[in-house]
């Protein structure tokens, strides 16, 4: 076990650019590279000019989100430098990501290939049985007990240990779920991981 204080980071929207990856996988699935619709849209379905899909089309798109997809997402600008600065300051970084367990190794490979100083990934699958008022990541956070948790999705702050500093990345606002009562769960709010790292490292620990 590490003796370093741990910071837990989300992947999509914090470390990795899921918007870019979604555009690419749409082209793979349907042969069309979508044009930009709204650069301030939180969800990729609204960010790109893409039609609504029926069940068969959604399943086809999901099939294209395979191990290759989950191991090749690009990094968000500035995220690598931010992670390296936290690592250099003496923090261990762990990724906790809401995705199927079968892609946990692919996610770790992706992060490692990009140069992130992260050696562990916890996949926390989302399913219909998940408690609505308890984050799917709460169990992992109870096991890890980090000093801070950085995510871009406010509902994932529900039910996490109260000792953990909850930092929320307030990215694209249009259609964002980062509104309402869940905002009160965040101890701090930041534009991106770079902004969090700068702010965090100015604090006295």
Offer a few descriptive terms.
205 residues; Rossmann fold; 6 strands; 8 helices; 6-stranded parallel beta sheet; alpha/beta
Average the pLDDT over all residues and give the rounded result. Answer: 95
Shape: globular
Task: List the uncertain runs.
Answer: none
Quickly count the domains. 2
Which assembly state applies to the chains in this document? single chain
| The named CATH superfamily of the largest domain | HAD superfamily/HAD-like
Helix/strand structural class: alpha/beta
Strand content: 5-15%
What does this structure look like?
With about 200 residues, the protein is of the alpha/beta class. It has 2 domains: about 5-15 and about 75-200, 3-Layer(aba) Sandwich (Rossmann fold), CATH 3.40.50.1000; about 20-70, no CATH class. It has helices spanning about 20-30, 45, 55-65, 65-70, 80-90, 105-115, 140-145, 195-200; strands at about 5-10, 90-95, 120-125, 150, 165-170, 190. The chain has a 6-stranded parallel beta sheet with strand order 3-2-1-4-5-6, with helices on both faces. β2, α6 and β3 form a beta-alpha-beta unit. α5 (about 80-90) runs parallel beside α8 (about 195-200).
Task: Give the SSE layout.
Layout lengths: L5 E4 L8 H13 L13 H4 L7 H10 L2 H4 L8 H10 L3 E6 L6 H10 L4 E6 L14 H7 L3 E4 L13 E5 L18 E3 L2 H10 L3
Parallel strand pairs: 1-2, 1-4, 2-3, 4-5, 5-6
Provide a short characterization of the protein structure:
Helix 5 packs parallel to helix 8. This protein is 33% helix and 14% strand. It is built from 8 helices and 6 strands, in the order E-H-H-H-H-H-E-H-E-H-E-E-E-H.
């Amino acid at each position: 076990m590490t003796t370093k204080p741990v910071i837990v980071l989300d992947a999509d929207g914090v470390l990795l650019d899921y918007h870019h990856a979604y555009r690419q996988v749409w082209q793979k699935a349907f042969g069309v590279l979508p044009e930009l619709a709204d650069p301030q849209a939180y969800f990729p379905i609204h960010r790109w000019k893409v039609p609504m899909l029926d069940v068969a089309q959604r399943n086809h798109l999901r099939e294209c989100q395979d191990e290759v997809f989950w191991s090749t997402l690009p990094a968000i600008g500035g995220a690598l430098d931010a992670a390296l600065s936290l690592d250099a300051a003496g923090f261990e970084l762990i990724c906790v990501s809401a995705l199927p367990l079968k892609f946990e190794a692919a996610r770790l490979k992706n992060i490692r290939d990009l140069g992130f100083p992260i050696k562990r990934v916890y996949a926390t699958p989302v399913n219909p049985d998940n408690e609505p008022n308890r984050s799917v990541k709460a169990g992992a956070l109870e096991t890890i007990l980090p000093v801070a948790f950085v995510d871009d999705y406010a509902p994932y702050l529900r039910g996490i240990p109260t000792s953990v500093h909850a930092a929320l990345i307030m990215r694209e606002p249009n259609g964002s779920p980062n509104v309402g009562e869940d905002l009160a769960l965040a101890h701090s709010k930041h534009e991106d991981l770079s902004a969090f790292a700068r702010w965090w490292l100015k604090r006295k620990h």
